[in-house]
Amino acid sequence: MEEKIILLVEDNPDDVTLTERALKKSHILNTLIVAKDGAEALDYIFGTGIYSGRDIGIMPEVILLDLKLPKIDGLEVLKRIRSDKRTNILPVVILTSSKEENDLITGYTLGANSYIRKPVNFNQFVDAIRQLGLYWLVLNEAPPVNNRKFNG
Amino acid sequence: MQESVRKSGIDVIGEIPWGTHFCQFYQNKQDLLATIIPYFQAGLQNNEFCMWIGADNLTSEEIRQAMTKAVKGFSAYIKKGQIEFVPYSEWYLQDGSFDGGRVLVAWEEKLNRALNKGFDGLRFASNNSWLPKKDWHNFAELGAALNNVIGNYKMIALCAYSLDKCNAAEIIDVIRNHEFALINLSGKLEIYESSRYKNTKAALTESKKELEYLSSFPALNPMQILEIDMMGKIKYCNDSTQRLFPDLAAKGIMHPYLIGLLEMVRGHAWGKSNYFSRIVEVNGQVHEQVVYFVGAGNNIRIYGHDISEYKQAQDLLQETGNYLNNLFDYANAPIVVWDTHFRISRFNPAFERLTGYKSRAVLGLGLDILFPENQKIESLHQINRTLSGERWEAVEIPILRVDGQIRTVLWNSANVYDNDGKQIIATIAQGQDITERIIAEEKVNKLNEILKRRASEAEVANKELEAFAYSVSHDLRAPLRAMEGFSQALLEDCSDSLNDDGKDYLKRIQSSAELMAQLIDDMLRLSRITRADMTLGNVNLSEIAQSISTKIKSNFPKRKIKFIITPGLTVKADKNLLSIVLENLFENAAKFTGKMPQARIEFGIAEKDGQAAYFVRDNGVGFDMTYANKLFKPFQRLHTVAEFPGTGVGLASVQRIIQRHGGQVWAEGKVGEGAAFYFTLEENKVI
Lengths: 152, 687
Fold this sequence. Notes:
The complex is a heterodimer. Chain A is α/β, with parallel strands linked by helices. Chain A is about 40% helix and about 15% strand. Chain A contains six helices and five strands; from the N terminus they run E-H-E-H-E-H-E-H-E-H-H. Chain A has a five-stranded parallel sheet with strand order 2-1-3-4-5, with helices on both faces. The radius of gyration of chain A is 14 Å and the shape is globular. The longest helix of chain B has about 60 residues, at about 435-495. Chain B starts with a strand and ends in an 8-residue tail after the last strand.
């Protein structure tokens, strides 16, 4: 069985550390790929830039996407994922600080599968990450693999 | 008018006037009949009464038969009594003897009778062959007398003499006493006129012409000319009088035109003037007349000049003049009139107010005194153009007031032309003082600019605020999460090396981070309320209150809370915002009644200072009215978080929303006795 990769797009190293901790505390031991900005995230997904040559037949099981990012922001990353045949049904969970109405609406409109606001309270954050992992990595049936493969 | 010239019926004579007295010498009956028959025929056909005075040599019967034969419809004339046949003996010799005076009177009576019967006059012929020698002299005298007076009557006379019976002297006598003589000589009629009559007749014809000419003057005069005697009997009236008063002759002295006229004439006759004016109503029509009068013997001649129409025209003119003067004087707009030399010929009180000049003081002066020095040439140039027929439409020409102030005035002008409509005689201009308007416009423009600047400033500020809010919601929370999260990590991973104080400190860091996160959230909520678009609609507050109360009950299942909600309270407002208001007020009430064994929360409407105010009232801990003004300020709290949790944003949000609805919100309360929050909504006012 292929390993289920989680792609975390997050520029704040504290948040990365806390997310890693929360995943560990929730016993989610999948490989965590961290992209520090939107451009890096897209490079990973499409095998470009520093990730050129990556086997893009292997796609993350879920992308945890922050919105406020350097270079290319989260909503733009989402838009590009959704507008590409290879990735248009990839599960994307927005994981961000903001609960601005605009961000929520735009996020869902662009095709986010879920929108989670990071709580300040760490225990609550752990709880959220645990549920998130349980849902997307265990309960949820991912789209068929061949659909996720670049076939050109 | 009856014709004064009559047809004689005798070709060689032609037409003759009334009063013609002529004779004929005949040789036989045929001669006489040849004259008499056409003579009478012409009289009968022209409505004259005819009389034949017959003698033995041509009897009445003979002439009647001859005329019956010759004149068509003769019997009808007989029946009508238009012709009479009288034997000479009956006419001239009543008592067997001849009396010329009596015969003259008889003729006059005959004429009057004929006139009364409606005939135009009397035409007679007399066969004088009967005359005996002894009466010749008297008869000649009668002829002379008749000749003298006949000119005054509507009478024509033909005297026939038998040539056989007259000697030369007698013939001459007859001819002298008649205007002319007809003599039948060898079947042909000839006229003999005595030179005396010929001259007289010529003179008479001449004077008659002269008379006709002169009488045409009063006859054709458009004034009313009439002569009346002192009894008011009309002696003369001209055509114009008859046209104006057709019933004047019929009514005589009782005619309304004459009633009172004589008295006025008499009254004025004592004075010096021979005229007066008079208004008299005749047949419903008012006549205003100037009446001149002169004495004419015992009669008075009246010359009436009807000035009614003239007077009406004059009244109308006067009325129009008054109207225009009023318009001019009471017009609010300044009006000035100048002549072709640009001299002020008139200006109205409004113009006096505009310029400060008194109209009297500047009449006749040049227009240039009205203009500021530096604008004079330009203004005069503008004015000069009106002479070429140009009309001003809102031309701006400033006016220099007598006190030195300058007013901005818009002018409209129109030229006034002479009666032919060719020559300009004056120009009239009407102004509109726009000085204040311009100042006001400048003020408005300035204000608009300020407003625009403020609006764009506000827009910029709003955008900044939005960016700020966005940044806050993202960036400020991340460090808090780090503080909280790593504190937790410390507590979990290094709990062994921490004493209780250390653990407590970490917990304090955590709760501070959470509190700050809460503050940030509340702050953002408040700013969202300020920025949110408003959509007004009908909002049922009671229903919202009901659903909030349900939610509160389920949030605090263990508490005893009694909700008293007045049903059916509906307002026009933004539903989302009003929901936030009620949520905040209800949650507050629930919070501050938390320590009551039996909480009571009421929602209703009350009258406060004459207007409807909605209220949320509770029986909670209440508050000190001293701090009532602090309640609605953001992040201001009257209780510690330990007592009652909260950040102090709820009531500030309530106030924002109510203010945006044009209403007011205030609180009443007392420590330990509950609190009441009132709000009003001005439904149509949106801030």
